[in-house]
Amino acid sequence: MSAHRILITSLAALVISTAGCGHDAPTSTLDPVPPVVAGEAIPTERCDANRQAGPITFVTGFDYAAAASIIEVIAAETAGYYDDLCLDVTLVPGFSTSNYPLVASGQAQFASGGSFSETVAFGLANEADLAVVTVAGAKPIETLLLKPEATSLDDVAGNTIGVKGKLPPGVEIMLSQAGLHEGEEFTTIPVDGFDPVAHMSIDETIGIPGWRSFEPAYLSQHDVPFVEFAVADAGVPGSFGVIFTSREFADAHPSAVEDFARASMRGLADVIADPSAAASHALALAEANGNPNFLSFETESARAKIEATLIVDALPDGMVAGTPLVDRLQDELDAYAETGLFGEATPPAATEVIIPIIDTITDDGTIIWPG
């Protein structure tokens, strides 16, 4: 890994440094380039086309957490996979909901998104033409954690849930399926920060939503009792760990987008094979950046292991992890449209958002990699 490729900075610094002068648009090549052939050297024409894409900035979804759509990029950069494909990639720590305008405006070329529907929602609300490259998790990762006196979702009725911002759409769907609607059968109040122990101690609330890969493990590590209701167990469709780009960049640099996905999916395979090692690399970057979110190896290794398991468990036989599963993603859009996530807009078909490159990246359940 080249040291200069991991940018130890803040998201605000990225915005300041790029907003003044803009990201220099690299020379585009629309000429077809030779494909990657397994076991053979990457063609010179393809390498040149990838270099013409210029410096590529990838913005993480939450600092350097060991989470899907972040950790595979860290793993790929650590292993030199982007270098192998003639891509000049720099990682910048960010936050998922802040990433969409950076990519839409060309200040970053790739970024981590929370879910497929979240990416589509931003695109619709801001008339931004975003395109999804990979999707790590094919089921929702949201969960609802209630205090131990609760025995079922029915106990939410007449109570209050503490939320960071707003109730996650997947949790909203799960509760509505149980006849529970925010503002009617229950209320929500905002909670500050990212400490689930503090959030669960708030007397006015019955519980909090969270992610299956963080809050449950963290609460257990701190001996805080809870009852968990996972959104996926309620049959709600969803996704997590999305990497996206802009349609403009994808159209201008198709081989670079394809090979960024290729390297990232190989990185994801490494994460699945050894989550703890991948978490160590992620934590090293967080600590080099001052670790503003107080990430620890205990929480990040647990996060990486749990998400790796969730990714594999939802993956159909013969599929490579990171492959967008179109039918499931369409189900997600359809279900979340009913919650009003997209406002009055009609979401596009999933096929209109996904870049159709998987067949050129994988073959018979393996990643096509040059020799």
Brief synopsis:
With 371 residues, the protein is an alpha/beta fold.
Overall description:
Helix 3 packs across helix 12 and helix 11 crosses helix 12. Helix 7 links the parallel strand 6 and strand 7. The chain has a five-stranded mixed sheet with strand order 2-1-3-10-4, with helices on both faces. A three-stranded antiparallel sheet has the order 8-5-9. A two-stranded parallel ribbon has the order 6-7. It is of the alpha/beta class and 371 residues long. The chain is built from 16 helices and twelve strands. InterPro entries: NMT1/THI5, SsuA/THI5. GO terms for molecular function: metal ion binding; transferase activity.
CATH topology of the largest domain: D-Maltodextrin-Binding Protein, domain 2
Number of discrete domains:
2
Largest sheet: 5 strands, mixed
Q: What's the tally of helices? A: 16
CATH homology-level superfamily of the largest domain: Periplasmic binding protein-like II
Specify the structural class. Answer: alpha/beta
Provide the β-strand percentage band.
5-15%
Helix content: 40-55%
Order of helices and strands: HHEHHEHEHEEEHEHEHEEHHHHHHHEE
Shape: globular
CATH architecture of the largest domain: 3-Layer(aba) Sandwich
Mean pLDDT: 92
CATH class of the largest domain: Alpha Beta
Spatial strand arrangement across the major sheet? 2-1-3-10-4
Low-confidence stretches: 8-30
Alpha carbon gap, first and last residue = 19 Å
Overall radius of gyration:
20 Å
Please provide the count of β strands.
12
